[in-house]
């Protein structure tokens, strides 16, 4: 099945089973805004809990805060967002659609990479075990031709982005025959910049109101609270401040479901270090964050680092952790060495001294910062995309199953009476009441047991417990495992430990802490 079709099915599945709904749907929706349903909010909260505990609970020198969405407008001047928070946009005159120029070019580079990989794959099949991939990449004429073209484009693009040359970006699009996906034409407008911040007025009257912004990132709330946290928490460098919160960007090219939205949630941690040690910590946090992702078991091959071609105005090193979505490798998390730009600028614009006195060095300085920033919604989408599976069973039937990591699953266990009589529902309720203090449980007695299993597969429930007549005799139940569909007879008293071992976040956190 084509990846595009898989993605459409995933989006449909998210709505059908209560994970994600289009916002304001009864009023025909609001573009690029979504609501999380009863299953989605549980999965989302579990993702946030996994991140928070891995940051705050596992590190003695990282603490959390929750800063306000509204902030003094000068903060965004100091951070550079007022002047530099722009996307290069281009319109196609025939389709009347608007695109990010940098994304169009990056997609073109990705297609060239795909051509190279296809040549390698074909050769690997042709030559079998004797295939020397390294030699093939270095000598094959077609591979070298594709690579030369790709490298030339890459060099032009990197220079144009770093120079802020909008005319060159448009010329690249024309020179490489990049067409509008809708109209198929190259009838492009000029490239222009567009600021992404939402603004509003704060105050009771027009004369007394002040222009404020909905924050486009959560990081600045951490920076302006640096001294508050450092002093009240008696924090010593190196230390970090973590935060989970909403951010807002007026994305003109919002697309791909919840991947790019106008209202989204971030999990960010700013790690403050001595000047000169930032690149060492940058490498350390790259390793730590990739380990966090891989601990979920979604497939190590689905992750890769992508270094930035154009560094942000505040950074001296930056990379993305990309995940293989149904629409290609896309950024899920960014790791940046932000230097001392933010704290230095807030000191300058506020007129307040924002420095750290290092008792070991006996001097004060403005700390450097390593940032890890992950989008909750993108993380949600990557987990759902990796978990979604359609499979044909040995008996010829098919099922849709979400192979979610058990600690993240919205519902941990479903308890089902085999029939709705003979005291089985009452026994099932009794079991639910004993488990619900530790696990999110669901009771289900409608339809055949097979249909009930399918419903739980579709929402990713790792365990189904069936109560039958034998249960009343010997105090045992049938536990059915989601991924293998194997069934096991266990004593009711064993359920707590059996389920707990698999669904506890502890199992994931131990992998991260190794």
From TrEMBL:
- A GO molecular-function term, please? bis(5'-nucleosyl)-tetraphosphatase (asymmetrical) activity
Q: Which SUPFAM superfamilies match?
A: Class II aaRS ABD-related, Class II aaRS and biotin synthetases
Tell me what reaction this enzyme catalyses.
tRNA(Gly) + glycine + ATP = glycyl-tRNA(Gly) + AMP + diphosphate
Residues noted as binding ATP in the record, renumbered to the chain: 249-251, 259-264, 331-332, 375-378
Provide an example Pfam family for this protein: tRNA-synt_2b
For this protein, the record's InterPro entries field holds:
aa-tRNA-synt_IIb, aa-tRNA-synth_II, aa-tRNA-synth_II/BPL/LPL, Anticodon-bd, Anticodon-bd_dom_sf, Gly-tRNA_synthase/POLG2, Gly_tRNA_ligase_bac, GlyRS-like_core
Asked whether the UniProt record includes Cell membrane among its keywords, one would answer: no
What quaternary structure, including any partners, is listed in this protein's UniProt entry? Homodimer.
Function, as annotated, reads: Catalyzes the attachment of glycine to tRNA(Gly).
Record protein name field = Glycine--tRNA ligase
Which source organism? Barnesiella viscericola
Q: Which gene encodes it?
A: glyQS
